[in-house]
From TrEMBL:
Official protein name in the record: Uncharacterized protein
Top-level taxon: Bacteria
Native organism: Formivibrio citricus
Keywords: Signal
Secretion signal span: 1-20
């Protein structure tokens, strides 16, 4: 395929601030509208709420709740999590659109750390804007964590995903004694291209991969100093196949190197 030179719209930053209606009483009303009992276990249920600019006076509410009977061992946050997503009226807490995704997040090796709503302007098609659901995971061995991004669009009275579980941040750390820790981190940002496939704009993911290593400070023997040993960049193109965006194999098969 030829070199890709299409203009892009960068979506490198997203706001993490929830405003206005997304207080505890508002979320409690929405939970009741979903049929959940009052009271929330912070380890088995994660809530995100954020006002949604394209719909004035409306908010997006997302609830990831562990499915009964799927807890793994004595872990407080491992198991299968269902996901509710709703567009909600800020004044009345009335649910205007709703989608339920069964076993949406499967946490059988990594601990599930919750979700965030990303309302950057993901204009995936003319007159069609998606929003993002970011999911966070970690594992206790060393310090390993990841964040995935899914894109969701309105569809009548419900929502549907057009991108599922694209890894956007990955960190692997190997912990050694005596200032020898090694870390590999991949940070990815998403941009919208003006190239179109099956009616949807292509997505461009740019990756920065950094390897760092700790060494003892020769001047201060009790301190560790980190230095970058390797840095590279990559670009991936995600195209719509008529149902959803396809994540390339080489983007999914991340080489952690230090695992």
């Amino acid at each position: 395929m030829g070199k890709f030179l299409a203009p892009t719209v960068c979506l490198c930053l997203y706001s993490a601030v929830s405003l206005g209606a997304c207080d505890d009483s508002f979320v409690a009303k929405v939970r009741r509208n979903f049929g959940y009992a009052d009271g929330r276990n912070e380890w088995s249920e994660f809530v995100a709420c954020k006002q949604y600019p394209p719909f004035e006076g409306k908010s997006i509410v997302a609830i990831a709740k562990r499915q009964a009977g799927t807890a793994i061992g004595d872990s407080e946050t491992m198991g299968d999590y269902n996901l509710d997503i709703a567009l909600v009226d800020n004044r009345t807490a009335t649910v205007l659109k709703h989608a339920f995704f069964k076993r949406r997040f499967l946490s059988d090796g990594y601990r599930f750390d919750g979700i965030e709503i990303d309302t950057a302007n993901y204009a995936v098609a003319p007159n069609l804007r998606a929003f993002g659901i970011r999911a966070n995971f970690h594992i206790d061995l060393g310090f390993t964590s990841s964040q995935t991004l899914s894109l969701v669009i309105p569809s009548g009275k419900t929502f549907r995903e057009v991108l599922s579980n694209a890894d956007m941040n990955i960190i692997f750390t190997r912990n050694w004694p005596s200032c020898r820790n090694e870390t590999r981190e991949a940070t990815r940002t998403l941009a919208i291209s003006n190239q179109v496939t099956h009616g949807y704009f292509d997505l461009i993911v740019r990756e920065t991969l950094v390897d760092t290593r700790e060494r003892g400070d020769v001047k201060k023997t009790d301190e560790c100093v980190s230095s970058v040993e390797h840095k590279e960049t990559k670009t991936y193109i995600l195209r719509f196949n008529g149902r959803h965006y396809v994540v390339p194999v080489n983007m999914r098969e991340f080489d952690c190197r230090i695992c």
